[in-house]
Amino acid sequence: MNAPRATLRSATYQDVLDAPPHMVAEIVGGRLSLQPRPAPRHARAHSAMLGRLAGPFDFGEGGPGGWWILTEPELHLGPDVLVPDVAGWRRERMPALPETAWFDLAPDWACEVLSPSTRRLDLGGKRDAYAREGVGHLWLVDPLARTLEAFELRGGAWTLLATRTGDDAVRLPPFEDLDWPLSALWAD
């Protein structure tokens, strides 16, 4: 006689709400993913990215403005609940921030800072979900390798636009109006 098969239930938003407060909870492909808060090098790259982009693109200080640039927004995209490290929406697509605790409008740009504990999820299910939902640009930052890869969504697939390393200048879509050194993201 065959043993009964265990059925896996899809994660729900209640699972996200019930997650321990020291964890980042996401639902990707129906499965709950729990990640610890970022390590210092990850947090530095994440914070520095926000610092480089928010002034000129969100606040219009020394740049064109016209964006909402946010850290760790909760995105409800189709069946997935995602938390990118940094994301941005053009204000022409989202004139005002929502009143909810999350966003159901896909961002125009997302940035994931890769770490050993998040790399597989960021490069797999999350990247696929961003493409499915029409996120126009995706940046992948690796603080250990000191790289930034910039992708653009074309015909539903990611196209690598450029890879920056070390102290290379960063002037990449959708933020090509600003030039800054990639080394600004690193902790040393």
Q: What do you see in this structure?
A:
- The structure is a single chain.
- This protein has 188 residues and is an alpha+beta fold.
- It has a single domain (38-185), classed as Alpha-Beta Complex (tt1808, chain A), CATH 3.90.1570.10.
- It contains 3 helices and 12 strands.
- The protein has helices at 13-17, 40-58, 119-132; strands at 23-28, 31-36, 67-71, 75-77, 80-82, 86-90, 109-113, 137-142, 147-154, 157-165, 169-170, 180-181.
- The strands form 4 sheets. A 6-stranded mixed sheet has the order 3-6-7-8-9-10, with helices on both faces.
- The radius of gyration is 17 Å and the shape is globular.
- It starts with 12 loop residues before the first helix and ends in a 7-residue tail after the last strand.
Write a short abstract of this structure.
The chain is of the alpha+beta class and 188 residues long. Helices cover 20% and strands 32% of the residues.
Key features of this structure:
alpha+beta, 188 residues, 3 helices, globular, six-stranded mixed beta sheet, 32% strand, tt1808, chain A, two-stranded antiparallel ribbon
Query: What number of structural domains do the residues give?
Result: 1
User: What is the mean predicted local confidence, pLDDT?
Assistant: 92
For the record, the CATH architecture stands as: Alpha-Beta Complex
Q: Give me the strand/helix succession.
A: HEEHEEEEEHEEEEE
Helix content: 10-25%
Low-confidence stretches: none
Largest sheet: 6 strands, mixed
Q: What's the level 1 CATH class?
A: Alpha Beta
Q: Helix/strand-derived class?
A: alpha+beta
Q: Please, how many helices?
A: 3
Rg over CA atoms, rounded to whole Å, is 17 Å
Strand order of the largest sheet: 3-6-7-8-9-10
CATH topology: tt1808, chain A
- What is the fourth-level CATH superfamily? tt1808, chain A
- The proportion of strand residues reads 25-35%
